[in-house]
Amino acid sequence: MTAVDARATGTVRDERAAQPGDEPEETDQALAAVRALDAPAALPPARPARAVALFVVLAVALVVLTVVSAGSGQLHVPPAQVVGSVLHHLGIDAGPVPGHANGDAVLWTIRFPRVAMALLVGAALAVGGALMQGVFGNPLAEPGVIGVSSGAAVAACATIVLGLSTLGPWTTAAAAFVGGLAATLLVYALARSGGRTEVVTLVLTGIAVNAVCGAGIAFCTFLADTQAREEIVFWQLGSLNGTRWPYVALVAPLVVVGVVVALVLARRLDLLSLGEREARHVGLDVERLRIVAILVIALLTAAAVAFCGIIAFVGLVVPHLVRMVVGPGHRVLVPASALGGALLLVGADLVARTAVPYADLPLGMLTALVGGPFFFWLLRRTRRSSGGWA
Amino acid sequence: MSAVAARRPAVEGTPADGSVLSACGVTYRVGGATLLEGVDVEVRAGEVLALVGPNGAGKSTLLSVLAGDLAPDTGTVTWWPAEQASEHQPRRGPGERPRTGGEALADVPVGELARRRAVLLQETRLSFPFRVVDVVRMGRAPWARTTSADDDDAVVAEALTAADVLHLAARAFPTLSGGEKARASLARVLAQSARLLLLDEPTAALDIRHQEHVLGQARACAEAGDAVVVVLHDLSLAAAWADRVVLLERGRVAGAGRPQDVLTAGLLSRVYEHPVRVLPDPATGELLVLPVRGPASVPVRGGTP
User: Given CB atoms, is A272 within the 8 Å cutoff of chain B?
Assistant: First the structure.
């Protein structure tokens, strides 16, 4: 009987199994492994402890820094009195009230809205950055770097210069949203290929978008009268100075909606990191995810930019640091970035207000001062560790 | 049997016993180039089907069409219901009801499709440094919020073991070597518990041991009742592990059937435009496909030594 005949009659497998050597044994093992539904193999444990520790540390630091920041400034209010003032306003008669005659007024009309805005904007920027990196499949994507912030800013500047108030106090925020959305879509369409963005393409696209938006802002500055010009300069520098409660009330719902939707998208963003085709293979509606995520990115960026101008690099630095601690899973990354971003911006704003006496440094300048070198370091590191990016 | 067939909507061709997926007259064009032309493929449960052919013959394109990534310009791709697919169907999902008729591939929602078929592409790049175990867990995504999700840990552990990457489970995916990445991706595909596996050159980056191991896995899945379609370049591997072989030549089917019928010296020499010898392994009798090297005096058809 020739071998070919043997195969034809279906006995080849048996012959193979009868051969000495590792290979048939291994096949048997493999078969057994597939059939054994109660495989005793132990999976490496998830790392919830690290995530919990991170959340606790961030939350405690955030509360402490918020209290300290609210008490710091030209009129110093000790932390205990800050807490006492909050408790009294909540109707709880505990703790000391601010000793200074104007202490309570300063806290509630100037400091608290500003700190609240810092919390919201920091969370919005960091979550926007995390989302953007997930959707672009590139850890270097960030609203400031790729020009989404300046897209939002140019639209907002236009409303200032043209004196538009179609939507009342929402006009500037709405324009920032539209501008940010347009810039995101533009970069997304230009910089991606095959579901990923190469670093070089992304950064160059960002340069182009930033250049065009910079020209737009310059044109607005040229057109503007003195008062509008000051407003525009303020936009470009980024600052929380002059924040009032009504602004906070406008920004808060946008940020809350954006962060909640980002949390809902978290698991799907994990799948997207497999690549577009692979994500579709495991059942992800990639098109829908992209559309929703881009809308949320534009929403969060607009919320941040609407009253505070361009504050760059928060969305880059925070998610990256979180990933280094707890890994890239978005279910932890998104909420931890929200806390981390809030913490960073409250801290940065505290420095901006107190570093130079009687001066309010531009916040965007500070974050760029720290974020620029960080971005450079990331670029080097990414390029070294996975040559494919560059 | 005939009653079942009668209830089916009219679809070109009658599917053979155990059909999972049928491609009928599939043509796919990009720009001016015709990548597939009038291709008929029958994917059956319990079988390993190898797609072979020279570079650019349309193997990966055909796999993408079967996966639902590409919609053919003409022709149909039809899913047959699970009850018809096989009498022993150990991996059927709870949400999957037996259907009476065939269903066009394009009509199957993306989530449902992911519970039916899993795809391994040639190269997997990951945007973020997830651990191997987390990547394999992503294969369980289609089963989220079903009762099957309760078995996630067991299925993931089983898939890691089956692909021989359990010892790498805690490593970050981007730090793996090419072959290790391929095996980790295979584990993700196995974890998807689909009844159709589409594997695009799963052995390309692998050493001999793991080539055999991976195809052994494919074989094991087929013997458990799944359907497996695998693109292979190594014709001897195809001969050894496949139940049926489809040989593609410039987008057309040049031969289809059992390995010993399709992998003949004459046909392969013509399709690959290079003289090829086919001879039985002196030890086991398996088919060996070898290129003819050196002077043309070497006989095209080799005999038993």
Answer: yes
